[in-house]
Amino acid sequence: MALNFSSDSSFLASPEQTPYQRLEPVVDGYLFKKSGCFGNVWSFCSFNKALEDNPCGELVNADLREFDEPSAVVADDILDRLPRDPFGMNIMKSTFPELSGLIQDFDWHFPSEYDVFGVGETHSKFDYNLFAGLYWGWNGAGSFPSGGNDKGNEMSVSDEFYDRLLFDGLFDGSLLSDGKVEMVLPTSHGDSCVSRGESEELKNSTKIDHDGEAGSPHDAMHVVLFLALDYLSVTDLLSVEQVCRSFRDIVRNIPHFWWSIRIDQSLCLRITDDTLVKLTNRAQGSLESLSLVNCTRITDSGLRCVLQSNPGLIKLSVPGCIRLTVEGILLHLRALKSSGKPGIKHLEIRGLPHVTDKHIEELKVLLNADKYLQQRDRRPRFYHRWFPYTDDDRVIDIELCPICQTLTTVYDCPAESCPQKQQASQSCRGCIACIERCINCGQCIKGFDYVETFCLEIRCVNCWNQLVSCPDKPIISQRTMYQFCLYG
Amino acid sequence: MSSSVEAITVLSSDGDEFKITVSAAKLSKPLNWMLEDVCFSDDCDEVPTIEVNSKTLVKVIEYCEKHAPRANSGASDSDAEELKKWDIEFMKMDVKDILFHILMAANYLHMEGLYDLACQTAADLMKGMTVSQIRKIFHIKNDFSSEEQEQLRRQHPGCSFD
């Protein structure tokens, strides 16, 4: 991250310097040239200075969080203590595209009139955030250089700088081999490029180190996998955690992977209050989205614990968690409201017992639902049997069914030719009990042909035909109807 | 950038020369910058080196050439569909041998599409796998001591062990 930024920041250099007169062999990742990346030095100098005044440096060795056992030593994260996204740039899940975008934006903000301090100051805040949040999740592992550097392109970055930033040695010494920052990727060298650092912690915990020249494919593989971890779900992360030590340490100690937690099918019946709290603690207080689908063992006290330690939670989804109560959630929302914090913006509570109109009314007030109602809640929602919990941006997922007047999820009809829609007053909206729908496409079956399978699932003819013609599926017959029942 | 040039020559880290069309090169930000800043003409005798080995570079260029028309002009849905299929085929490669290099190269060349694709491919390989399967796929050695293993086992009663 930092590296990228620094390399990129060379583009902040004043255009008058017209860098690329000569084209040198590409050793220095981006620049395609040897000298002339003046911007790097400038911006890093000033950045460095700004950092020295930054109290966050002291947080480096603050309390270590552990998941379960004391051996999990890699990093306490200053991330928690920093604003997640000070400029509202929405870099929560940044991968490099977004980042590059940001960087380019920066570039534009500093045209020819190029003020060193201005740049530096902005960097300090910006960079810091990036450092803190995305150093691993993004290309942390991958883009750290090792070897093959362009010697002409030295950066004035002191070791101290890294000590401050790269706490506890996960990256200590790994970012740059010897005080240089470049964007050279070691693909051609075959090293795994992560850590040459001699930090003490690393020795015993994180085994990404290698001896520089003779990186084995084994190490290299780790790096790739770290990059890919960002794309995994909770269940998979938990599996990855058990693969080997370096994976365990990475998965446990990089809160970035845990900002969004979704527990469904595979874990929902097993997860308890206790494990949920431990799991969410990995986000180190910066959890943003929590989905608990049919987690029947989660109770109000467990959820409260999680909510209290993660005030920044934006989306809470607890469909089918029958041991939770709407009062418990209300209690938390009231507390948030009274403390004036920006709290949950999206709530999914279908399947919770004893939800009344009054609850919904209060929830709407607490969530500022009226504000969003006009724009978002008008978007149609379609029924699907297997993916009923799709993400949509509704503030609250349940509402009064226009037909039976119960509080439940109300679906729209996707079929444009739906006869119900033709009639002016009707819009074919209703809960699944009132309007029967195809389990696949969500189309209402009134006035359409449909097939009912052995286990009483309804499919419209189109979906049924698709299913039949799909070569991967068993050929349809009376018998396969029975099979559906089994598979379903 | 001079409009007269349609393809540029780049060197891989192994020293092999590769031709890449300008529109394809534009998918990579650094290459694009280079194109904007440097005039490629016949008398330009400098050949930029890309620090990616030949085997990987072939693949990367293949990807660029395939995606360039769409990136430049925008395409219909059917094209997008087709491209998706092509991507899937394209990514059917040996993890250890080449996927890793592709990912690194995508990162290095700032190609977001390829980067996402490669990451997603690697992630998909891990999805739904048991611990031992992941180890096998990625050739990772189990370096846990038996105590650590036991500890993990206790922590994650819900996860698949074998």
UniProtKB/TrEMBL annotation, chain A:
Pfam family, one: F-box-like
GO CC aspect terms: cytoplasm
Organism this protein belongs to: Acacia crassicarpa
Entries under SUPFAM superfamilies matching the protein: F-box domain (SSF81383), RNI-like (SSF52047)
PANTHER family with a match to the protein in the record: F-BOX PROTEIN SKIP14-LIKE, MITOCHONDRIAL ATP SYNTHASE COUPLING FACTOR B
InterPro entries (UniProt xref): F-box-like_dom_sf, F-box_dom, F-box_LRR-repeat, Leu-rich_rpt_Cys-con_subtyp, LRR_dom_sf
Annotated F-box domain residues: 224-259
Protein name from the UniProt record: F-box domain-containing protein
TrEMBL record, chain B:
A Gene Ontology BP annotation from the UniProt entry: ubiquitin-dependent protein catabolic process
Keywords on record: Ubl conjugation pathway
Pfam families in UniProt: Skp1, Skp1_POZ
Membrane-crossing residue ranges in chain numbering: none
Alphabetical list of InterPro entries matching this protein: SKP1, SKP1-like, SKP1-like_dim_sf, SKP1/BTB/POZ_sf, Skp1_comp_dimer, Skp1_comp_POZ
Domain SKP1 component POZ, first and last residues per copy: 8-67
Domain of life from the UniProt record: Eukaryota
Presence of keyword rRNA-binding: no
Domain SKP1 component dimerisation residue range list: 113-157
Gene3D superfamilies in the record: Potassium Channel Kv1.1, Chain A
Biological pathway: Protein modification; protein ubiquitination
Subunit text: Part of a SCF (SKP1-cullin-F-box) protein ligase complex.
Sequence similarity: Belongs to the SKP1 family.
Record's function text: Involved in ubiquitination and subsequent proteasomal degradation of target proteins. Together with CUL1, RBX1 and a F-box protein, it forms a SCF E3 ubiquitin ligase complex. The functional specificity of this complex depends on the type of F-box protein. In the SCF complex, it serves as an adapter that links the F-box protein to CUL1.
Protein name (Swiss-Prot/TrEMBL): SKP1-like protein
UniProt source species: Acacia crassicarpa (northern wattle)
